[in-house]
Amino acid sequence: MRDTGNELQQQAIDSWQVIRNRFGLIILSFLLVFATAAIITYIMPRKYRGLVEMKIERMQNKVQVFQRSTDDFMAPSDVVIKNEFESITKPETLYPVVDKLDLQKRWSMPNRQAALAKLRGNLDTQSSVRSDFVTIEFYDQEPGAAAEIANAVAQSYMTRRVEVESKQKQDALTMLGQQISEQEQLRDQARLKMQEARKKGGIVGEWFSNGSNSTAPGSTLRTKEESMVMSREQALLQADLEVQSLRAEIDELSKLEGDELVSRASGLKLENTNVTGMMADLNKLQVTREGLVNAGRGRKHPEVIGVDSQIILSKQLILDAVKSHVAALQTRLEFAIKRHTALQSSNEDAEKEMFDQQSAQTDYKTAVDDVAYIENLLLQLKSSYFETKAGLELVKSPATIYAIATPEGKPAKPNVALNLVLGGVLGLMLGIGLAFFLEYMDTSVKSLDDVEKFLGVPVLAVIPKDVAVLHRASGFNPDAEAYRILRTNIEFNRRNPDANCITVTSGGAGEGKSTTLCNLAFVCAQGGYSVLLIDADLRRPRMHTLFDVSNAVGLTNYLTTNVQLEEVVVRTPVENLYFLPSGMLPADSAGVLNSQRMSELIADAKSRFDLVLIDSPPILGVSDASVLANEADLTLIVVQHRKLPRHMLLRVKQTVENVGGTVLGVVLNNVDLRSDSQYQYYTSYYTYYSPNNTAAPAGHKPEKRKKQVAPGQVAKAVSAPSNGSRGDLF
Prior knowledge:
Blueprint: H1 2-21, H2 23-43, E1 48-56, H3 77-88, H4 91-100, H5 103-106, H6 112-121, E2 123-127, E3 133-140, H7 143-200, H8 225-254, H9 258-263, H10 274-294, H11 302-393, E4 399-403, H12 416-441, H13 448-455, E5 459-464, H14 480-493, E6 501-506, H15 513-526, E7 531-535, H16 543-546, H17 555-560, H18 565-568, E8 570-571, E9 577-580, H19 589-593, H20 596-608, E10 611-615, H21 624-631, E11 634-640, H22 646-658, E12 663-671, H23 685-688
Parallel strand pairs: 5-12, 6-10, 6-11, 7-9, 7-10, 11-12
Antiparallel strand pairs: 1-3, 1-4, 2-3, 8-9
Helix pairs in contact: 1-12, 2-12, 4-6, 4-7, 7-11, 8-11, 10-11, 13-22, 14-15
Enzyme class: transferase
Keywords: ATP-binding, Kinase, Membrane, Nucleotide-binding, Transferase, Transmembrane, Transmembrane helix, Tyrosine-protein kinase
Organism: Prosthecobacter fusiformis
């Protein structure tokens, strides 16, 4: 959460910074748009307003035939009002106003369409939120005409709506009359169908399941034949069970033979009552035979043979009785089958007859329901017909006017205050939008991060805007602290102490390169360094103007003749600071600089001075700076804040490196501290050295650094005249 808050705070600071940087553009945009709005407002024609306030009545447009909720026919209030006030501006409403007031002739229009267009262009309708009130406003240069036309529009709307309502109701009456006639014909046809179905079904009275005579739709008719059908079905079921029982018994007996059939005879329901006695006699004979056998009589014993004869006779009699029983069962089965067939045939005929009768009764019931439904529908249609007819004769007012339009004393358009406020707001919005757009499109160097990100080298110093030449200022100057920071950073960033020859270049002209080098030489001399400042900008030399000396004799003389260094070096009024002017400008400056004589000059100067600072021309477009970057130990790039695009700055570095030079760092120059508050951290010495702060009292001078003399070096600095004349320096 803290990181998010810090990020939002930083974004707000950046946005405010953009506004401050482009404040002039914002003010200019504001003034231009505001002035434009004022001029347009001034030249706009003054128009008066005619205002009508009325309440729209939410009349029911549809004819309600069936009893339903009125919500189905009543739209929401906002929809109704929206539709109605939109209809006010329709041609059907406004053309009668054009014709009634003869607006075509009054406004000198070529046709009715042009008059209608002007009428609609000056007409405005508004509705209140969640309210049935609407306002009609018309604007005209004549106050009386504005009120007259507004009232005419309101009256035309009301007349038009009454006509629409009446036409809709008349159409509804016609439609209802046709529907009533059609339904009456359908009712007569349904009654005929009902009578035919009643005759076909043989219905004497309207007998229903509840025993009452009712014609309510949905009732069910029944007849007395239903119970008879149910009895026949039960008899048919019993006959079917009897046939199945007889068949099962016959099938079971037909499977038995001889003794098995005789043994089952006792369990059968035989019609011959003697069978029971014969079964008893058979059992006695079998017991007697068994007794004889047990007594030791053999099978051929006369007594055993006699008993066997009697047993065979008894079995034969029983078997005959059983066969007679089976024959009787067969006869019963045939009779049962005939009876079942007869019952089934009779039942089918009865069911068919009953089905026909029920179909006729169903047709009758359907016809009764149809008649009842049509009668009910006719009742509703007739009720709606008479209600609509009564509503047509008593037309309700479509709107209630609460305020008619009257001529106003002052014009309503243009609204001067509103136009000016909108112009001011739009101007500010345009200015701020342009500011952010230009900031987005601006690819120049804006911050230290831009330099270090694209070049990969450190920013050694941030130089404020409008810094003067330090050696010309009197007293204590806090601007010198920026160059002292530069001096300190140079000391710590050059890895080799012997690399004391530094050339200063820039990407383009006017970036403050010469002033930066002059002030750097001044603070280095104040710090105790013996400094030689060489003006090697042989295209547009400027350094001599900063020291108020002539450049008639200087570097070019030394490089093209055999003069000694002492003859061209000037001792400045600043202690420890010496200056070599450019000399007369040659035709081929790059060729002069790219010579053995120049290499010897740099080598000689490095051995005599603690620092050798060379001012070179801009490196982009000319080759002089490339030659000097190759000859010098280090190269310092001066970049003007918010001037060169980032890709051009990268090209400056690449150009230096391509010729074998070493980029020491970048000086960000001409920074506007008032608009770019992010740099105040790097220039806080202004506050620290303010007059109210006693950290740097008046007359304070920094401690001078003692000149370091290399072994074997002879330094014979001779006092020079204060006007910067040349002297014997070595």
